[in-house]
Write a structure and sequence with these properties.
Radius of gyration: 25 Å
Shape: elongated
Number of strands: 0
Number of helices: 15
Structural class: mainly alpha
Distance between the termini: 88 Å
Helix content: over 70%
Order of helices and strands: HHHHHHHHHHHHHHH
Largest sheet: none
């Protein structure tokens, strides 16, 4: 416990002395090796951390945290095959361990095995409903597969859980627009605009909605606001220029 507290206080050298002393006494070796691996990783000594975790697992093959952390380090080193095996083993040892499902979902998605990715994101959400990134990543995957209705259902669930989260609100707005639910999109945008007046993306989406319902003046105004707030917002320039060109063409082609 003293070593763990020292680790939390960033007193790594003092913590390491205690761990090495425990190793010399051969006390609780798998756990000591595990905690020492966390310390080595914090010091940037990734390969030493991997070696310590491997030793921990060899002494206690059912130590799921060691399995998971080694998998995470393998994933960080882009060794997806080894990471995948370790995450699967972690879940065998500890059903419902959400981080392992999340990382498996990432690997399956990277392999274009999208159905397995979806299954694991859903298991991760079931195991820990309060981890925001899973909702965002899974909704992005649904949209990539043009499964827009599933993305909408998922994000509406997330919106209830993370009511004040701007990313969820904007992602849900995007899905509403894709599903042609323009009233819902407009209502949500105006709700979040109250507390985010200088957010370029909100004005950008308001402009898209305005364009789709034929309110060109509002579209021009909101694209302009979006550009003023974020001068490098390329998509806003492109969309605004298209509206202006269309407006000029319509007026040029009018008969007198």
């Amino acid at each position: 416990n003293k070593a763990i507290n020292l680790y939390k206080l960033e007193k790594l050298e003092e913590a390491e002395l205690i761990y090495n002393n425990l190793l010399s006494k051969k006390e609780n070796l798998p756990q000591v090796l595990y905690y020492l691996s966390l310390l080595k990783n914090k010091q940037g000594k990734t390969e030493e951390a991997k070696s310590l975790l491997s030793q921990s697992i060899s002494l206690d093959s059912k130590f799921y945290l060691a399995q998971y952390n080694l998998g995470y380090l393998m994933l960080s080193s882009n060794d997806l095959k080894q990471a995948k095996e370790l995450f699967i083993k972690t879940i065998e040892l500890k059903q419902g361990f959400a981080p392992a499902y999340t990382n498996l979902a990432y690997i399956y998605s990277n392999e274009n095995n999208f159905e397995e990715a979806i299954i694991n994101y859903l298991k991760a959400i079931e195991s820990n409903p309060n981890f925001l990134d899973n909702y965002i990543n899974l909704s992005d995957l649904f949209l990539k597969l043009t499964r827009n209705t599933e993305a909408e259902i998922l994000l509406e669930k997330a919106f209830k859980l993370f009511k004040n989260n701007l990313n969820i609100s904007l992602n849900l707005t995007n899905v509403y627009i894709k599903n042609n639910k323009l009233q819902e999109a407009d209502k949500l945008l105006r709700e979040i605009l109250i507390f985010n007046l200088n957010n370029s993306v909100i004005h950008y989406y308001l402009a898209i909605v305005a364009t789709k319902i034929g309110n060109i003046n509002s579209a021009i105004l909101n694209y302009t606001k979006s550009i003023i707030i974020e001068p490098n917002f390329l998509e806003a320039y492109i969309n605004l220029s298209q509206i202006i060109i269309k407006f000029i063409d319509n007026n040029t082609n009018q008969s007198f």
